[in-house]
Specification:
The protein is mainly beta and 405 residues long. The protein contains three helices and 25 strands. It is 12% helix and 49% strand. The protein has a 15-stranded mixed sheet with strand order 8-7-6-5-4-3-2-1-15-14-13-12-11-10-9, with helices on both faces. Strands 16-17-18-21-22-23 form a six-stranded antiparallel sheet, with no helix packed on it. A four-stranded antiparallel sheet has the order 20-19-25-24, with no helix packed on it.
Length: 405
């Protein structure tokens, strides 16, 4: 066996032995946590105590609705979750739905989930087909940590570049009718691995210590742009933070989307033009080349695809448009930005299909004298036939001429 392959095998075997050794009932408790940031905003925070094969977690997230979770987990000898119980408090939901108790019993033969609140009981039975099955909850990164650890333990000799496939089930109410999805962990080497799955658009990456404890998780390559790190000192007072998040949510009149939906309208001559789009915040982040990646098709906003509607024939950036609704996409590089007009509309912003492209033209690229925190699109009339579509965020300002015919 080549030296590199032996090293990979030994490292995986050691990690598996460490994981199994930690399952004894006499193991000393360890405490750690996770914090997830969206730019400079905290979107989830968690405190965990693990004793052998048992974990207790207290967590709060706002993604965007504030939820506070108390979870108790029992692990199987292979590091997978055998039994999970979670109490979820959601202050902004109707009274009968604010408290929910979830119980999951899992093996490679069957997944049985019972979700109970005062509206009734939801029972979910699923067959993982003999595969490793783990819960997926984007906001709770102790579960992601266990997800990776169980995958590594299930296939300790997977080489760099190799993949480990598993099934995943869901906890929250929004997923009550979802079937099992598939996840793929890819070994990247140097203490790194990636995760992709059916629900996640894009690929996340994570780093690990020698015992395969997750140290960081990055959603930069996904639509969930969170950056997560492990906490080992000064663990948070989750109850106090949760109370503050809930109070802030109540003061706003309820949950608000992380990227609100808005409509920009303008009238040029007798033509009414509107743009329906999501408005992400800068949140202290580097935008171009990071949040908006060079060479990638960007949805030009957030969440659902950005829609452009015109009531008369016109040109946009030189492309001829008949009256109707289109979607707008952009592709930035270090030196220029292309605008794509697509005839499909009503889809989510990750569902760009180039076969429906009407055309592609460059935008005029400029910069802002002061950074714009919230992505902003506007239709600026000029005269009876001419106007400009303007896109501003952070330090960039992109424009496209409009000519009504």
């Amino acid at each position: 066996m080549p030296l590199h392959s032996r090293n990979v095998l030994c490292a995986r075997s050691l990690a598996a032995m460490i994981l199994l050794a930690g399952c004894g009932s006499s193991a000393a408790p360890t405490r750690y946590g996770f914090v997830a940031l969206l730019g400079n905003d905290t979107v989830s925070i968690e405190s965990v105590t693990r004793t052998g094969n048992r974990l207790t977690s207290d967590e709060v997230d706002r993604f965007p609705r504030v939820r506070r979770r108390h979870t108790e987990i029992r692990l199987a000898s292979d590091g997978s979750i055998r039994h999970l119980e979670m109490d979820i408090r959601t202050p902004s939901e109707p009274p009968q739905e604010r408290l929910r108790h979830v119980v999951a019993d899992v093996s490679k033969k069957a997944i049985r989930i019972v979700k109970t609140d005062s509206t009734g009981v939801v029972r979910i039975n699923q067959d993982p087909g003999g595969m490793l099955a783990m819960p997926q909850l984007e906001q709770m990164y102790s579960l992601t940590d266990l997800y990776f650890a169980a995958a590594f333990a299930s296939a300790p000799s997977t080489p760099v570049g190799g993949t480990i496939r598993l099934r995943q089930y869901y906890i929250d109410r929004e997923f009550d009718r979802f079937s099992l999805h598939r996840g793929v962990v890819r070994i990247l080497g140097n203490g790194r691995a990636s995760l992709s799955h059916d629900w996640l658009s894009g690929t996340a990456t994570a780093t690990f210590d020698s015992a395969h404890r997750m140290l960081t998780y990055s959603g930069a390559g996904t639509t969930y742009k969170v950056e997560v790190r492990r906490l080992t000192d000064s663990l948070p007072d989750v109850e106090a933070i949760g109370a503050r998040f809930a109070a802030e949510e109540a003061a706003k009149g309820g949950p608000t989307q992380l990227s609100v939906r808005d409509t920009a309208r303008g009238v040029i001559g007798h033509d009414t033009i509107s743009v329906d789009y999501g408005r992400p915040l800068m949140r202290g982040r580097v935008l171009l080349g990071n949040i908006v990646r060079y060479g990638d098709v960007w949805r030009t906003g957030a969440n659902a695809a950005t829609q452009f509607t015109a009531t008369a024939p016109m040109t946009l950036a030189g492309m001829q448009l008949a009256p109707g609704t289109y979607t707008l996409w952009t592709v930035p590089t270090k030196s220029e930005v292309d605008l794509i007009v697509n005839t499909q509309y009503g889809q989510w912003g990750t569902e760009y299909n180039p076969k429906y492209d009407l055309g592609r033209r460059p935008l005029v690229v400029g910069t802002m004298s002061a950074p714009v925190e919230e992505f902003t699109m506007s239709i600026v009339p000029g005269d009876a036939r001419h106007g400009t579509m303007v896109l501003e965020w952070g330090s960039f300002r992109w424009t496209a001429p409009i000519v009504v015919q």
